[in-house]
Design brief:
- The chain is built from ten helices and no strands.
- It is mainly α.
- It has a single domain (about 30-240), classed as MetI-like (MetI-like fold, Orthogonal Bundle), CATH 1.10.3720.
- Helix content is about 80%, strand content about 0%.
- One of its GO terms (cellular component) is ATP-binding cassette (ABC) transporter complex.
- One of its GO terms (biological process) is amino acid transport.
- Pfam families: BPD_transp_1 (PF00528).
Length: about 250
């Protein structure tokens, strides 16, 4: 992690000298009042980015788990319903789904929907299809012997899943779950198009005021890079904490 941060620290001086462009880093200079104000404005976008990403991740996991169960059924029509849902949702671009939820759903259902919840709904639905596949693969990877052992103890289907199968499956699917959370973090930048004040929206607004897109969007890249590196490190730590000992 420290090596990556050092690389980022060296990244900006390299950019400064790689062309004849006169960089206007004064716009984000923390030693000036203007720079402090702009930095606070940009960093304030972390709150909405993290809130919408975390909430969407939790809801997508719950919905994805529900969608995964029909795929594990022996009934063909339930498997068919699972495939239709997964294939349809995965085929819709996240931005298109977001715009439909924000502009179309209120008209269709005659409801009021603010940009935060529109973003949560769109990201949750979009991500749930991928989560369903992750859970399906993780559950199917558990050996048949575990199922038979649970049934020999007199556990019903839901008790078996809750107490025996899902805890083991969760350990196996933690890496792909971490990847999906990183994916949600990146896709959350799309909610800026409907007015949510996330990191990307803040950067867009500052560009309009300062007319320095290269500097501001470079800073935005670094913000997302640091955030995702932090999340990746946390996931790796959690993987080690819950890993099954090899001996």
């Amino acid at each position: 992690m420290s090596q990556k941060i050092i690389f980022i620290a060296l990244f900006l001086p390299f950019l400064q000298g790689c062309s004849g462009y006169d960089w206007g880093w004064y716009v984000l200079d923390p030693s000036t009042t203007q720079g402090q104000t702009n930095l606070r404005f940009l960093i304030s976008g972390f709150s909405d980015t993290i809130k919408i990403s975390l909430l969407s991740m939790v809801l997508a996991m719950l919905l994805g788990l529900l969608v995964a169960f029909p795929a594990l059924s022996h009934r063909r029509w339930l498997q068919w319903l699972n495939r239709v849902y997964v294939e349809v949702i995965r085929s819709i671009p996240v931005l298109v789904l977001l715009l439909w939820v924000y502009y179309g759903m209120p008209t269709l259902l005659d409801i009021s929907l603010n940009h935060f919840w529109a973003g949560v709904i769109a990201l949750t639905v979009a991500e749930s299809a991928f989560m369903a596949e992750v859970f399906r693969g993780g559950i199917q990877a558990i050996s048949q012997g575990q199922h038979e052992a649970a049934e020999s103890l007199g556990l019903n289907y839901w008790q078996k899943m809750r107490l025996i199968i899902l805890p083991q499956a969760f350990r196996q699917i933690l890496p792909p779950l971490g990847n999906q959370f990183v994916y949600i973090l990146k896709m959350s930048s799309l909610v800026s198009v409907i007015g949510l004040s996330d990191l990307t929206r803040r950067a867009n607004e500052l560009v309009v005021n300062e007319y320095l897109p290269l500097e501001i969007y470079t800073f935005l890249v670094i913000e997302y890079l640091l955030l995702i590196l932090l999340v990746s490190q946390a996931i790796r730590w959690l993987e080690k904490r819950i890993a099954i000992p090899s001996h």
